[in-house]
Amino acid sequence: MQRHMCKGKIHRATVTQAELDYVGSITIDSLLLKAADIKPYEIVQITSLRNATRWKTYALPAPEGTGKICLNGPPAHLFSPGDIVIILSMGMYDESEVDNLVPKVVFVDEKNQITKIEEHHLITNGETSP
């Protein structure tokens, strides 16, 4: 059996741009991508805390340290600069891989600069530990 698991998360990032006239994707500061273990062109899910909108697209790197979070193409209708979002990276894991999974949660400030990174190790009783 395979399980669909969260492998990385950027928690409470602030949308800095929304560009409708673009082919699609989300552009994310490269430092945040690395910290959350998200590769360029990897599929991510973005959820708005303002209106609960969820969108899946692929990630593109922005220059390191810029704090850029830009929704490109159609999601520019749904997300606006200033919106707070959660960006999830997910993967499919075999049962044997799940116990070794260590999801990373990247916390950012209002300028999308990293304030803390937590690694969540799985514990055999079903709970997680930072």
Tell me what you see in this structure.
The protein has 130 residues and is mainly β. It has a single domain, classed as Barwin-like endoglucanases (Beta Barrel), CATH 2.40.40. The chain is 8% helix and 50% strand. It contains two helices and eleven strands, in the order βββαββββαββββ. It has helices at residues 30-35, 95-98, and strands at 2-14, 17-19, 26-29, 43-48, 54-62, 69-72, 84-94, 104-108, 114-119, 121-122, 128-129. The strands form two sheets. Strands 2-6-3-5-4-7-1-8-9 form a nine-stranded mixed β-sheet. Strands 10-11 form a two-stranded antiparallel sheet. The longest helix is centred in the first third of the chain and has 6 residues, at 30-35. The mean pLDDT is 93.
Rg estimate, integer Å: 15 Å
CATH topology, what is it called? Barwin-like endoglucanases
CATH architecture, by name, is Beta Barrel
Largest sheet: 9 strands, mixed
Poorly predicted spans: none
Percent of residues in beta strands: over 45%
Task: Summarize the topology.
Layout lengths: L1 E13 L2 E3 L6 E4 H6 L7 E6 L5 E9 L6 E4 L11 E11 H4 L5 E5 L5 E6 L1 E2 L5 E2 L1
Q: How do you describe this structure in short?
A:
The chain is built from 2 helices and 11 strands. By secondary structure, the protein is mainly beta.
Features:
130 residues, 2 helices, single chain, mainly beta, Barwin-like endoglucanases
